[in-house]
Amino acid sequence: MKKKLLLGTTALIAAGVVSGGVAQAAEEPITAGVGGYFRSAMGLISQDDNDGEFAEGAQSFTLGNDIEIVVSGKTTLDNGITAGFNANIEGNGGGTAANGSAALDERFVFFSGGFGLLRIGQIESARQSMTVFAPSGNYNFGVNSPFFIFANPGNAAGFFNVRTYDDGLGNEDNIKLVYYSPTFNGFRLGASYSPEDGNNGQYGGNAGDAASGFQNNASVSAEFHKTFGSVSLGLMLGWEGYVVEQCGATAAVQTCDNNVDSTQIGGSVGFGEWSIGGGWLETEQTTFNANGSSRDREDFDLGVAWWHGPFGVGLQYGQAELDIAADNTTDELKIYELNATYVLGPGIDVGAAIAKGEYDNGTAGGLDNDYTEFKMSAALNF
Q1: Bigger pLDDT: 193 or 364?
Q2: Which of 34, 112, 269, 287 is most deeply buried (CB count within 10 A of its CB)?
């Protein structure tokens, strides 16, 4: 049903594009430009497990960077419709872990006008794009940031940060249709659909029911952003679902939850130089617990931030809990972080953060781990 509704919406938009008028010679062609960022950071880490040993031989000093080059362009036609494209080159994607060679990340075309905004391509879902994060004083760091996670909690569950955006179930940038409604008095709706979990349905990409493969990825979301005098308010609510067509080695063997989904809420309030808020995401896992019950992962974050001119300071708390299939226990990761930023000039900033992490292994006799990080960053945006 969701698929039919989305296809119907797409047909209406296409009809509006056709009936909007024929492009005139005076219209400008698409003008393209280049932007992006280069972020670098260093970290000093102290960490141990419950025996007082340094966790998994990790280094006490380490470096990292994150690079993205964005090529984009657009034009506005005489009928009022804007058409354009966006292609992100991720400097740390593709290749091997050692060389981090360049690879295309998100890439899509879009059409916008009185009907709203339509995107087609490899892009995050409507739910994920409307995420409201805990306020931060440094957006290179943070309990909810995937960038510069230097400490290694050493947990078998494999979670290193709090995430209230990417649910980790499928390919977040699978090729999809994404639609956003026009904004009415601060309200906006979004919906997205991807028939499969790949980056392309052509050239053999339409592979059918692969074992543990995700299909029919759909999401719906709503957001409200409005300013009341000196107070700004942001709220969001989202849902995203998946179908696992083949849970086992064969289509006749169903060994997992084949209709998993994620539910998300978030909100923030800003007043003057201060902001406070957070988010929550609950995600069903595809495999079951040992007793046959469903497994979940639950993440949430809270934060308060103060920005004054070129200075920013933030205090955040985040927590992630993951059910473990083998013994019906729950692993837990808590992160506390104090971070700050100083903007040197247009597009250039430096920052620092102190983070404390606590990992609790729910399995009897399992290794717990604590760590402390001191991190410094420099970011250039162009």
Answers
A1: 193
A2: 112
In the chain, where do the E strands start and end?
31-49, 61-76, 82-90, 103-113, 116-122, 175-180, 187-196, 214-228, 231-244, 261-271, 274-288, 294-308, 311-323, 330-345, 348-360, 369-381
Q: What is the CATH number of domain 2-18+33-381?
A: 2.40.160.10
Q: Mean pLDDT across the chain, nearest whole number?
A: 84
pTM recorded for the entire structure = 0.84
Domain regions of the chain by residue span: 2-18+33-381
pLDDT in tens, 244-288: 877 765 555 556 778 899 999 999 999 999 999 999 999 998 887
Question: Which residues 6+ apart lie within 8 Å of 178 measured at CB?
Answer: 108, 118, 119, 120, 123, 125, 126, 129, 190, 191, 192
More confident residue, 94 or 323: 323
